[in-house]
Amino acid sequence: MKRMNKMTRQFEGYSFIGLWIIGFMAFSLGPLLFSLIISFFKWSLLDKPVFIGLKNYIDMFKLDPLFWKSLKVTFTYAVVSVPLGLIVSLLLAILLNLKLKGMGIFRTLFYLPSVITGVAAAVLWMWVLQPDFGILNYFLSFLGIQGPDWLGDPNWALTSLIMMSVWGSGGGIVIFLAGLQNIPQLLYDVSSIDGATKFRQFRAITIPMITPSIFFNLIMGVIGAFRTFTQGYVMTNGGPLNSTYFYALYIYNKAFQDLQMGYAAALSWILFIIIAVLTLLVFKTSSSWVYYETERKG
Amino acid sequence: MSVIVVLTASACSGAQTADTSGNTDASNNSPATDAPKTDPEDAPVTIRFATWDTASSLETYKAVVDGFQAKYPNIKVQVESVPDSYEQKIFTSLAAGNAPDVFLWWNYPQLVARGAVEPLDSYIQSGEIDPDQYYPEIFNASKVNGVLYSIPNIPTTRAIFYNKTLFDKAGVPYPKDDWTYDDFLSAAQKLTGDGVYGFVTEAKNTYTLQQFVWTNGGKFISEDGKTVDGIMNSPQTAEALQWYADLVNKYKVSPSPSASTTMGGGTEMFKTGKVAMFESGLWPLNDYRKMSNFSFGTAMMPRKNGKLVGILHTSGFVVSKTSKHKDAAFKFAQYMGSKEGQTNFVKLGFGLPEMPAIAQDLKTAEDPYFRPFLEMIKYATVTPSYYATPEWSKIDEKLVYAMEATILGKMTAQEALNNAVKEINTTLQVGK
Q1: Cβ within 8 Å, pair A150-B258
Q2: ipTM exceeding 0.90?
């Protein structure tokens, strides 16, 4: 066997990843760096960018109440919807893990919402939440409760969107389900011989064994929550009274409604930093609560 | 790393070249410089035209474009329909330097402030545009600070649609041309009940609100676009907003904002008989006419103390600064906005004639549905707020908040507008 020329081998290697690298640079890294640069400029998209240093970033913190408002809305949404989504999808996954007849149908039903695209789901929920003849208030009326004007009342609008996010947690259910099915039956058998209750088994076996799935769903959930856009854009347009003015919607409006591209880019970088820091925090703490079975062997 | 530098550099320089070429054109101010050889009859060119209309109306465009090409065989026109995110698409294409040569637009100050569209005054001087053939209110809406930037396209006023069946049932007389706010309110109150609302308000539509504010003697912003304090929060403006909000909260003749949104807004609610009156542009008229067993009429807006100011929705054909064939582009814009071109669009029923000659030919005033809309043109005497400043979208955001807060009954109109004025001053400094 002839030894291949070093150059040729390198070329072969690069040619395999080359196409991807070009795509990455042109469509991801390039725009990314461009947005970082433009965040130090004042730019309306139609005229010449004017360098204004850190002014975009300073104004954000000092002058812009909507920046704080949209941050608050987004944080509130994330803080409530992510844990709630995790708990509900875990509980549902446990139910769907039971060995019952026709379980396939239930699993499909609960996963179905995740198949529906954002805008369609948003429109569907607008009807569900309609105050006068929406199905939710119709059911509530049987209990003698006069349901609120869900999306029209500033006190309820964000809550409504959080409810909706929980409905769409089918993706998380699937991952939990896979995690649950990977837990060896042996562990449950052994512990029940030792007299462990169902609850004890859940706490001491199920939870630790699926922490990798929780970890994954947590990270994806946090990232997803901070990028929420469609609901605010389609269902409420940020209202009523800015109560659902998500950060991503604010970025969009600054860029394409007010034509402040530089400012919108600066807002995006702040969002990027927030998501990066939160993800890092979750990663840092993960060693203390995420349990990988394989690690014990090492 | 080098790839990236090149990318960003080219993106910046792209914007720069677009800008400098724009400047040269402005200083020459002669549309013929780009095609120095001659007029477009000799050199065959292709121009691009963008519209926000959906593909379904492309047939009408085709008919009009065919008429244009019969007249100017050497100018080929490529029609692009962009029904979704139209404005964003135009912005980005302007930034990238590949904007359509001619496109439909409405918010001229936004583009004029950034030098993106061609001024057309020279064509008035050269006699190619005759301002006298248009309704003056409509022609003036194509100007920014006295300079013409577009050839008007089918405009519409706003007027009242009312459901005759529901009026008969409630024993309410049909609206007359000179009906008043009091007539309007008492009609709305009598019509409300049994799942029917007398009227429907829009919680976020400050554009629509303007006509009530103007009729009441108020305004949102000074004419030079620099002042809102004492204008947006003046007693007249506050009174108008309060009255509009009271239709929901006090008189309860209009559904809550979110309830009407889900029911599809006025247009849909009117169709399904859930609302007896609503005010709108001409747009839904065609649909209503096609419905069988649907008896409705249109009426002028009500007056307050004998005063009435209406509002126009206008748009027009603009020529992009970056167009390489400005003369051909202008010829096309002019044709689209001419009597020949416009007659086809008016026949479609989506707008009013922009010149009396078309109205006469088509006997628009004799059509009972069209007549109130046509009448309203001469009441459109005040310039809409967005003409005052290219920053209007930022100001409007605060105004929308005030309007919403008042309609939701969280604040009085006066408090809400005072707040808005306070916030507008800081918001305009952000990122400047």
Answers
A1: yes
A2: no
